[in-house]
Amino acid sequence: MKPQFLATRLFIALLFFIPTGVSFGQSDKPAVSDDEKAQQIVQRALKSAGGDRYLQVKTITGRGLFTNFVDGISQVPQKFVDYVVYPDKERTEFSGGGARTVQTNFKGGGWIYDAAALTLKDQTTQQLDEFRIAVRVGLENLLRGGWREQGAKLSYAGRRPAAVIGHRNEAVRLTYPDDFWVEYEFSADDGSPVKILYERKHKNRDTEEIESFSEEDRLHKMISIDGVTVPFIVDHYTNKIQTSRIAYETVEYNKPIADSLFTKPANIKALK
């Protein structure tokens, strides 16, 4: 997996934390097109995440290990540090084995530094599209209501078996105007997030045919810090085969983060 896609996977996980400036106030009335049951599930999930404490997060600094999987087998983990600043800045640094990669995204743009290749480049259209999809499927987009501005419809997707026998998950679905959809499963016991499921379409290089791939994030090890509860382990699966694991070691909220971290340097020597 290429470094830029590692950062995208990490960002999907971090989107559980990031504020977007849109909240579900107690006095808000659900849109006519929204399913009432789905709205209740989302409200309960927001409360489980920390309610007002969750809404007050403005910056996040996360550290941990990212492990890539090949054919379901784990590879050598990479250390990462991720910086997020509300509302539209994110920088992920990967290091390990003498290599270093930095990916930075901001509203409408981004850049990547690859120490092994000694390159500092603007992100391609494909890379920026990957990031936009990460924003779409993030739990944050659901909990803060960012999907409303994107024209998506919220609906109830039913009750499903949980990993623990005898327990159930409640599922909701967001469907976008372009027919892209994403589903979120929450524990029926306490409203905590359990899974994110969606589909991606890719062109087969050999046949030129468009193929669909199921994508799934499984969320584990819920930990509360400063009143905000988040998953510290995120396992990603493609077509039911594990492709990565994000394991946070520390997460800090509302710590000052310098703007200079997100500005593309004039050259590699100027990179911080």
Would you kindly provide a written description of the structure presented here, covering whatever features stand out?
Strands 1, 2, 3, 4, 5, 6, 7, 8, 9, 10, 11, 12, 13 and 14 form a 14-stranded antiparallel beta sheet that branches. The protein has six helices and 14 strands. Helix 1 (3-14) runs parallel beside helix 4 (125-137). It has helices at residues 3-14, 36-49, 52-55, 125-137, 139-143, 146-149, and strands at 59-70, 73-74, 78-85, 89-96, 99-106, 109-114, 119-122, 153-161, 168-175, 181-187, 193-203, 210-225, 228-238, 241-253. Residues 1-6, 17-27 and 29-33 have low confidence and may be disordered. It has 272 residues and is α+β, with helices and mostly antiparallel strands. The radius of gyration is 18 Å and the shape is globular. It has a single domain (3-270), classed as outer membrane lipoprotein receptor (LolB), chain A, CATH 2.50.20.10.
Please give a quick description of this structure.
The chain is an alpha+beta fold. It has six helices and 14 strands. Strands 1, 2, 3, 4, 5, 6, 7, 8, 9, 10, 11, 12, 13 and 14 form a 14-stranded antiparallel sheet that branches.
Task: From the 3D structure, determine the CATH topology.
Answer: outer membrane lipoprotein receptor (LolB), chain A
Shape by Cα distribution: globular
The end-to-end span amounts to: 25 Å
**Which architecture does the CATH hierarchy give at level 2?**
Clam
